[in-house]
Amino acid sequence: MRFSSEGMVEIKFITKTFSIFSFRNTLCILIAIIITSSALAQDRSGTGSNKRKVELIYADEDIVIRDQQTGKDVHHIIGNVKFRMNESTLTCDSAHYLPDKMQITAFSRAHIEQGDTLDLYGDYMFYDGKTDNAIARGNVELIDKETHLYTEAITFDVKNQIVDYTTHGRITNAENTLTSTIGIYYVYENLFHFKDSVKIVNPDYVMTSDTMNYNTRSETVLFTGPTEVKGDSLYMYCERGWYNTRKDVSSIWKNAFIDNRQNILRGDSLFYNDSLGFGQGFRNVSIEDTTNNLFVMGNYAEYHKQPESYFVTDRAMFIQVSSKGDSLFLHADTLRGITVPDTIKEYRLVRAFYNCRIFSKDIQAKCDSLSFSFQDTVIRLYHDPVIWSVDNQLTSDSMAIFSKNQQTDRLELYNSAFVTIQIDTLRYNQIKGNNLTAWFKDDEIYKIIIKGNGESIYYLLDGEELAGLNRSKSTDIEIYIDQGKVTDVIEILNPEGFIDPPEPLGRKEPRLTGFKWLDALRPKEKEDIFRK
């Protein structure tokens, strides 16, 4: 098929015209879609003019007055007034309403109801629909489930569900009544933040703080400043931590301590369940027994209130405080304390396990385990015990330290008793027997009584000069000591012995069977009790 040249030109012209027309139409459609989408987006975001966020639902009377200055209508609404604001309603006795600004000023018995959970009451309210904020004043009450807030003025960010007050507020939740000067309530999180003169009153205690948070759902208090809890049987202080008021469980730190009227528990971090009477302490823990004037310390501790007991480990140390300044320090891998019931009066019993060391000014000791009874103030040492007192070393299978009026009264050594008294680097007075009792006066040994198979070696001195060497055996022996020196030996039942003339220093000095000098193990100062 053939076409003329004019025809070809006409066909091309028509094709070009159609293409330009289609492009223009498509562009117009796209512009219209963009404009429409923008308008819809504005409506969805609440900035569009077509969607009303505030709507008057009902009133007995609606008087409309034109404002001469602005040219806008002002609604004076009277009687059974009810507005809808998105998902909330506002009711009151009367109101002023500015539709163009979406603002309501409500008077008398104003009430914002949000769903079936939150209600806000006040004598006066102002609501701004553009910002979605409300202000309530006069006899204000906020109810959120079981939580009631009473104050004189609050602001309510309805969109973000945040309520705050600065004119003193009172909150009731379960058994707790909370008061503070400043408060913020985050409704979605069920969380109050309190500031300035914060106080919680519970039937069992009163809690005061400068700053704290309170979760109304879990009934948990979060401490963020210096806080005190005072109850009939409990006093607690901390500067950080939390306390579940429903379960009586707390975890506190930063200068934390708990006083249950019997013991004071301190530590870098403390956990305490009051309903179970169980506590834990972590790092730098101390338990102060105010009744018996003693401390137990360590880096980890557990405490049980009933029956009262504690467990301490990790640099565990027991301290018995003396009014004369001669405190006794005991270290062991593990310390346990229990309260023992008794027909007359219950008493405290402390047990120490593994690598025990004792230091005081006048007595030092080492053993594998021991017990300390406050019924008769006796320390009993087991498994290779050693006691040092001035120049005296005492060893046996087991032994006991008896105290009276916070001073050592006597030592009792059971089975294989051995006393070694150092004269100089080579010479030692030695006494041994089945059982031994050493008596103290002014914290120094002044008399020793040996019972059964007594043997002794002691040096006779004339001033500082060696006068002779006495060797003796007897069933029982009494030895008297003055300032660390043997002054008299009395042999009882079947005595036998002899005195050797002095020998030149340097020869092999005599030793009784079982002799050992353990001064290298002696704690010579308080920190030595931690030496392995």
Distance between the termini: 116 Å
General shape: rod-shaped
* Average pLDDT number: 84
**Uncertain stretches:** 1-50
Rg of Cα set: 44 Å
Helix run count: 1
Q: Which secondary-structure class do the elements indicate?
A: mainly beta
Largest sheet: 36 strands, antiparallel
Strand content: over 45%
Total count of strands: 36
Helix content: under 10%
Compact description:
This protein is mainly beta and 532 residues long. The chain contains one helix and 36 strands.
Task: Walk me through the structure.
- It is a single chain.
- The protein is mainly β.
- It has a domain at 407-530.
- It has one helix spanning 5-45, and strands at residues 54-58, 61-66, 73-85, 88-98, 103-114, 118-128, 133-144, 147-157, 162-165, 169-173, 176-180, 182-186, 191-202, 205-215, 220-223, 227-231, 235-238, 240-244, 249-259, 263-273, 278-289, 294-304, 309-320, 328-340, 347-359, 364-373, 378-382, 386-389, 392-395, 398-404, 407-422, 428-441, 444-462, 465-482, 485-492, 496-500.
- The protein has a 36-stranded antiparallel sheet that branches.
- The longest helix is centred in the first third of the chain and has 41 residues, at 5-45.
- The radius of gyration is 44 Å and the shape is rod-shaped.
- Residues 1-50 have low confidence and may be disordered.
